[in-house]
Amino acid sequence: MIANVLACFDLGKARDEAGNEIEINDDYNDLGLITYVKRFCLNPSTLTTPAIPSHKKPFKCSIIPRSPQVVKLVDGSRG
Question: Which of 30, 65, 64 is nearest to 50 (CA)?
Fold first, then answer.
């Protein structure tokens, strides 16, 4: 499915009213797990964020169909 999305759409940063790219923030939701591990781990300073499950906070992006055929395909799937 991911390959289909990448083949059919150009994905990129969102743009503001002036056409400038909106930077993606580096914020993550820790779902309470990071706080728990840091509180109860013997040496929390040795923890690295990628080793702890988390989810990226929502951010704006640009998703643009690569062709008119993709638009027709998506419109046709709405039933």
Answer: 30
DSSP annotation of 15 reads B
Among 2, 3, 21, 4, which residue's Cα sits nearest to residue 12? 21
Strands 61-65 and 55-56: what pairing? Answer: unpaired
Residue partners of 13: CB distance under 8 A and separation at least 6: 21, 22, 23, 24, 61, 62
> Please, are residues 10 and 66 in contact by the beta-carbon 8 Å criterion?
yes
Q: What pLDDT tens digit does each residue of the chain (79 aa) get? A: 889 889 999 999 999 999 999 999 888 776 666 565 666 665 656 555 545 556 788 899 999 999 999 999 988 877 6
